[in-house]
Write a structure and sequence with these properties.
Blueprint (H helix, E strand, L loop, with lengths): L9 H25 L1 H35 L5
Helix pairs in contact: 1-2
Length: 75
């Protein structure tokens, strides 16, 4: 459920990310089998981006949790 109370679409927020993760994982594995150097290079290009995204997600989750503490669902 989105912050404004709207439901997030199954295709956009569940299916597409799962398919992309599946493809990226298998591409990385295939590159590792063919040429390990290529696999490591691909990982090195994505790692900084993913670490920044994890930090953003953690910050958003903290702020969302603090906001929800003020208005609990079962109070």
């Amino acid at each position: 459920m989105h912050a404004e109370g709207k439901r997030e679409g199954l295709l956009r927020y569940r299916l597409i990310p799962q398919v992309l993760a599946f493809v990226c994982y298998h591409l990385s594995w295939l590159l590792y089998v063919i040429r390990p150097h290529w696999s490591y290079r691909l990982h090195a290009q994505f790692a900084p981006t993913s670490f920044r995204r994890i930090g953003l997600d953690e910050r958003e989750h903290k702020l969302e949790s603090l906001a929800r503490m003020m208005q609990p669902r079962f109070a």
